[in-house]
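Much of our argument rests on the idea that a fold can be written as discrete symbols. In the encoding step, the backbone of a single protein was reduced to a row of integers, each denoting a local shape. This step matters because it turns folding into a mapping between discrete strings. For completeness, the protein is quoted in full, as a sequence line and a line of structure tokens:
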Amino acid sequence: MITDVFSAGPETLPGYRAAGFPDPTTFGYRTVRARGLDPVALASLDVLLSGVPFETALDTASTSPSDNPNLYEAPVITTLSERVVRFLPSIDERSIDQLAADWQGSPELTGRDPAALSSWLRQVADLCRTTVPAGNLLFVWNCL
């Protein structure tokens, strides 16, 4: 599964929806690429960062602006938890590696390279820092 995180201005979302939710980079959105970080893995990250119950984090990770999304028919857009958007950029550089190691301990990420997870976390934290103040929203492009 491809789970790219991208930053979009709210005014562009109707056009993006009308286009059928294409690859966010081809639509001009700033994107952090990932593979295998499904909504359950992102929910685990939310729990680590915010301490919310897993069920709450999973509900957030599967929230979509689409009506009746079907991953088997087309890409599905979900929201990146506002808790992740708020807390991840506040993690200092040294603590990102510890967060990645803790996250790698979740069943969904067993065997994943902690250094690759650290790199992804840094990129998403930077995306949050640089695009949210401009009024952009962060989404996850889920595609099989």
The helical segments are 13-18, 39-50, 54-61, 82-87, 93-104, 114-131. Residues 86 and 122 are 14 Å apart (CA to CA).
